Amino acid sequence: MVTGKFPAYYLAGGTALAIYLGHRFSEDLDFFSPAYDPAMADKVMRYIKAQTGYAFKKGDEVCRNAKTAGMKVFYLDFGGGVVMKVDFVEDVFGDTAVVKDGILSLADIYQRKIFAAIGVKGKSSSTGRLIAGGRQSVKDLYDLYTLSRCHEPLKKFFFRHFSIHDMARLEHWYLGFGRSEAVLELLDLDVKDDPRKVFAYMDKIILKEMASLKH
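Above: the chain sequence. Below: its structure as tokens.
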């Protein structure tokens, strides 16, 4: 409905990936566009309300700057305490995006999932050590695991699109997960795979196979 009426936007993120792979349930929508406009995001939500009758509330908004893409968050209220989060995000890599039927390609989702983890640009700690600049999300972890298993091995995909320096940020991001807490979060997501197998696989890929290439 949205992408047909507003073709500048396309579905990306976890829900788009779930449409392709059916690997987990995703309760939010992420609409990306290189032509992101906060006013247009408001217009899209008003259109959704007009078409469905569901009310919405505005959430956080991030204004574009030299380090951060623009983003606007809404909450669509279905009633009975059921609320869906809807994000509109500026796609800083949108000039090369491949979109079909309003959904971003698997390869493009893969790339953006990695950027979500490590950040577009690295950050430095107080000691000057390069660290990951993205977000610490078990959803991203499980999505990368599934993409590696079902689409293309992470090692092969990563080094075709990213550098050895980026690898240090990926490793730091992965080591930032507390195992016990992450396992519980994965169980709460009701994923198809045993969380312990997820970590065993990612340990092998990130901490052994990929890390060995840094030396």
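Confidence is low (pLDDT under 50) at residues 123-132.
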